């Protein structure tokens, strides 16, 4: 049997399996369009938070489907988050712990491979960021590493490397639509992963959007000038907007100057050096007056911190404008081609991000702004659920969800669970009541300590370890901004005991080699970070 015939047979079998189950609302495997951005946080998406951003095209997905109000990641860092999504497993099981030491083991079972086995055509366009060659895709074209906002380089599945002229967010959308239009096999269901670089640092807007939002002012978060009392791990980070070392005045805020050299000036020069003459002229024409005023006024202290926050927010919104526009473009194409009736469209980010909360940018911590991530799904025909889904979900759930929709078997070793019952409007009585989290990348950029923890609907218990041994406990109902560590305070003993027990239960359930207990004076987690899947 030819390989093509075999795939069509598998696709037919998957379609039969999907249509014969009495509880399945669709007659054939659904197409899946999975759009994932980088560092797009829920508070900068207007269907979650209307204070700052307007994202009408992203909101449209929620309006025509569902919005998850309690969506979280398992490890708030780009590469590890992507590995969790692909494998349906926590970092210790898929062995991609961090961005600095690991290469993704593409030989392990992954969602796209399993979809291929179920007859799906699979494609990936955009950011990969797993330091390996993609596997499980019929077609892929990726940017190396983080990619470049301007005139980016792409690596193709043919082995060729090509530099494309234009703005990356637009190009990723172009190439996604081109695959759908010219390379997709209309006789088979498909899964297309559209992975954007936006909203990743250093927030370089398209030239057509440079002048937007320049009249916007932003109220500082209440805890912008956090003193980190009772939270030594938070005090030790290096992701402060106010810090000249952390938020770079040249790289992040584009205030280049002949007499100013920062640690990241070479990176900035490399980025703008990719621009063509027209792009560079527009860039300099916009930023030069801002630079002149900045160095003339030379703000210091709190005034400088506020200035940096304002520029950060404006740049973030400008890159977000391009992203929202391009999501709208892709949705318009799907509608024009009559694909929406049988296509699930998912939008999420690889993690959340700090927009000045605690005085920070970036992510990594288990605190709410970075552990949470937006998740909306535009539902196809057969799914009548609309509105909010409040159950706690995690990015390890995406792989089993897609496999369930495809009529494919969900491997037992996957830690996540299918979200399909929630999409049908069900509220399973045995749905999870807690989430497990584990972050590993230290020492590294931003110097966030290694930690793991458990989150319930009301409480969060975190253990920072390695070169520190500190527990933190938060009552999210009374202290939603996580400013007051109540671990060890009188009256919290029972809560801490229950959370310790739940944390240990989750570690045993998933198989994380870390074992802990409140009876130990010093926990010594096993630090086996060999980046090879077992």
How would you portray this structure in words?
- The chain has 534 residues and is of the alpha/beta class.
- It has two domains: 3-203 and 322-423, Alkaline Phosphatase, subunit A; 435-510, Arylsulfatase, C-terminal domain (2-Layer Sandwich).
- The chain contains 14 helices and 16 strands.
- The strands form three sheets. Strands 7-6-5-4-8-1-9-10-2-11 form a ten-stranded mixed beta sheet, sandwiched between helices. A four-stranded antiparallel beta sheet has the order 13-14-15-16, with helices on one face.
- The longest helix has 36 residues, at 301-336.
- The radius of gyration is 23 Å and the shape is globular.
User: Quick one: CATH superfamily of the largest domain?
Assistant: Alkaline Phosphatase, subunit A
Structural class: alpha/beta
Low-confidence parts: 1-26, 516-524
User: Per CATH, what is the topology of the largest domain?
Assistant: Alkaline Phosphatase, subunit A
Number of extended strands:
16
**String of helices and strands:** HEHEEHHHEEEEHEHHHHEHEEEHHEEEEH
Q: Helix fraction?
A: 25-40%
CATH architecture call of the largest domain: 3-Layer(aba) Sandwich
Oligomerization status of the protein chains: single chain
- Radius of gyration equals 23 Å
Content of β-strand: 5-15%
Alpha plus pi helix count = 14
- The spatial strand order of the largest sheet comes to 7-6-5-4-8-1-9-10-2-11
Gross morphology is globular
How many individual domains? Answer: 2
The end-to-end distance, rounded to whole angstroms, is 32 Å
What kind of sheet is the major sheet? 10 strands, mixed
Mean of residue pLDDT?
93
